[in-house]
Amino acid sequence: MNSGLKSGGSARQQRPCLSQVEVTALKGVGKQLAQKLGRLQIHTVQDLLFHLPLRYMDRTRVTPIGAVAPLANVVIEGEIKACDVVYGKRRSLMCRLQDGTGTITLRFFHFSGAQKKRLQPGVKLRCFGESRRGASGLELYHPEYDYLDADQPIALEARLTPVYPATDGVTQQRLRSLTEQALALIDDYSLQELIPDDAWRRQPYPLREALEYLHHPPKEAPIDKLLEGTHPFQQRLAFEELLAHHLSMLRIRQRIQAAGATALAPVPDLQRRFLQQLGFSLTGAQARVSAEISADLSRPVPMLRLVQGDVGSGKTVVAALAAIQAVGNGMQAAIMAPTEILAEQHRASFTRWLEPLGISVGWLSGKQKATERREQLTAIESGEVQVVVGTHALFQEEVRFSHLGLTIIDEQHRFGVDQRLALRNKASDGGRSHQLIMTATPIPRTLAMSVYADLDCSVINELPPGRTPVKTVAISQERRQQVIERVHAACQEGRQAYWVCTLIEESEVLEAQAAEAVTDALRNLLPDVGIGLVHGRMKAAEKDQQMRAFKTGELQLLVATTVIEVGVDVPNASLMIIENPERLGLAQLHQLRGRVGRGSAESHCVLLHGAPLSNQGRERLTAMRETSDGFVIAEKDLQLRGPGEVLGTRQTGEVQFRLADLQRDGHLLPRIKEVASYILTSHSDVVDALILRWLGDSENYASV
Ligand code: ADP
Ligand code: MG
Question: Which ligand 1 atom sits nearest the alpha carbon of residue 317?
Answer without folding.
Answer: 6
